[in-house]
Amino acid sequence: MNICNGKLLKKNYLLYKQPKLLLLNRLLPYKKTGYFLLYFLFVISLAKAEDGYRLWLRYDLVNDNALLKQYRSSIQAININGNTSTVAALQKELNTGLQGLLGESISNISQPANNSIVAGTPATMKDIKAMVGADALNTCGSEGFIIKTVHFNNKNIIVIAGNTDVAVLYGGYHFLRLLQTHQHIQDLNITSVPKVKLRVLDHWDNLNRTVERGYAGISIFDWQTLPDYLDKHYTDYARANASIGINGSVLNNVNASALILTPAYLEKAAALANVFRPYGIKVYLSIKFSSPIETGGLKTADPLDKAVQEWWKKKADTIYQYIPDFGGFLVKANSEGQPGPQNYGRTHADGANMLADALTPHNGVVMWRAFVYSESDEDRFKQAYNEFKPLDGKFRSNVLVQVKNGPIDFQPREPFHPLFGAMPQTPLMLEFQLTQEYLGFATHLVFLSTLFKECLTADTYEKGAGSTVATIVDGSVENHALSGMAGVANIGNSINWTGHPFGQANWYAFGRLAWNHELNSAQIADEWIQQTFTNNPAFLDTVKTMMLLSHEILVDYMTPLGLHHIMGYGHHYGPAPWYDKGARADWNPVYFHRADAMGIGFNRTATGSNALAQYAPEVQAMYKDSNTCPDKYLLWFHHVSWNHKMHSGRTLWEELCYKYYTGADSVSWMQHAWNNMKGKIDEERFEHVKMLLAIQHKEAVWWRNACVLYFQTFSHQPIPEGYEQPEHLLAYYESLEFPFAPGH
Ligand code: BDP
């Protein structure tokens, strides 16, 4: 199936033409109109099939006649020069995109003409500088683009310009987005430059195609048939990423197999890199720190050992022979059982620097993860900071320390990680999780843009007010040359890529925010809905509201008021706040919520673990007093009594019940809102989302009942009057087991 609708229709037609004639011949003798009607309905339904594969790159005919007329008159031809694979990709995308959107094919011309698009760089188009201004181009760097309507040599032209082919490709995708979102194009003057340099998807995909924490099928990377078979997914994945500015892909799980660096797999990775390259996407690999032992025959992986250093240097040289523009390594070391430099008494900096030195001659980078915690009496919240803060300034210049958005682990809500604001001399790469490991897997509709924004806009006060996480991460606070944002991918081979049709929005939002963290969630939702579903204003309004509220709703029915990590053990499916059998204290929900007869919550103030001290004084001031701490972080930082007075006037116990009940109830509201959308979009995706919302509702009620009943065993207070009583006793919820829950 082709992602572009223009082609899809044609292909389907050819594909079904033969059976259609056969069927027609069979039906003719009956000559019953009923059969014909049925048959035509069948053909129409095929032509309209919407399985989600096309993502936000659907390019369906613009259904606003006035706009269509405007578009058609301003876009009559395309002038793109150059013979690189990126130029070819851009040409193809514009041709297919415009053909779909405008319903007519657009000719390619070799000179700028009146009412044409001119796309190029100063190297490929001699007039480009004169059209947009050399100064403007100077602000674009190597990836930024300009889209401008100009009157040049008596011609009306839409210019898409950049300093490199890839920049122009980004501009081309942005232009198509303008049309898909029905923007006027007569007076364009857009300059867009990415704020963050490395915008990377991290795949937790294993070489056997299972995906750690993946809920959308198996891996799209079919290592078995690579390098010879190049699945269509690879190109469409690259297109989707390029369209939102993602420029890197880590192909394999952070819990890495050492085999990834063996020649057989490097050849496969190189084949993927070749497909991705025209789209500006670099390939990175997760490495296993013990690779020199496992595949190199050495006795040690000590980063200060000369033979080990030599092994990595040679390995890097080899990798670059396969992949000349290889991006670098992602490393999980001394975390959750992975080997690392500490096995040899060395530091994270020793380990990262050894790898960095091997990559330096080739301009590669190391993304060294700070997700570390070990069995210890220390609050898990504090451990990454304790290990990494003393290493600030000790890393080579091509190392980024990659930090999860929050201090624990991708919870529905976390305060920002205290390392942001604490390592001024080190570029910190922000890691978000798009796959919904702790957020209902791929069956809960939750738009993560608001979660991302909550973190990005949080003020660390590193250099006074305004040092937001976003400005730490984009390098502007400390003037770092390197900057990066990573998203743990939610992609699999499921037909719509992400399992839940709305999971696509999280991939989309991540890319858009990595490019420009100043975009707001409403804008992003707006763009995504229009491109993915429809421009119908009623649909747009309702669904945008659902999306914007969805994260808060999920927090309410799962982990309100600052509760965290109370999910099922191991697989993290469903509620299990009672669980206390985990091999380590900090793998148990009871460790995190600390409910007792007095109250609930983790005291992280000076009278408790004092994790709060890891933040700047201004941040501490916001959170340190349980009476002024925002409700949403209350139980992150305080153990408060069941009768604690909340800002609403309710007691903590009442508020907890209120949140759980409102959360579950809000999912019914989402169902209701969605049901009203029937007929506004295709039946296929409408029904899909409807069924998933039913699961979400069932599970939200399950979360509510299980948690309220369990916490009631400590509060000893009744569920407030007027609330529906849980369907089962606590013992029932505690007895549920899910040995085959996916993704672990
Ligand atoms: C946790 C996941 C685990 C990952 C780990 C990580 O449960 O599967 O390996 O994060 O980020 O959230 O390394």
Automatic annotation (TrEMBL):
Its EC number is 3.2.1.131. It is an enzyme of class 3 (hydrolase). The active site is at residues 336, 409, 437. Pfam families: Glyco_hydro_67C (PF07477), Glyco_hydro_67M (PF07488), Glyco_hydro_67N (PF03648). Transmembrane segments: none annotated. One of its GO terms (biological process) is glucuronoxylan catabolic process. Residues 55-175 form the Alpha glucuronidase N-terminal domain. SUPFAM superfamilies: (Trans)glycosidases, beta-N-acetylhexosaminidase-like domain. One of its GO terms (molecular function) is xylan alpha-1,2-glucuronosidase activity. Belongs to the glycosyl hydrolase 67 family. Homodimer. This is Xylan alpha-1,2-glucuronidase. It comes from Ilyomonas limi. The lineage of its organism: Bacteria, Pseudomonadati, Bacteroidota, Chitinophagia, Chitinophagales.
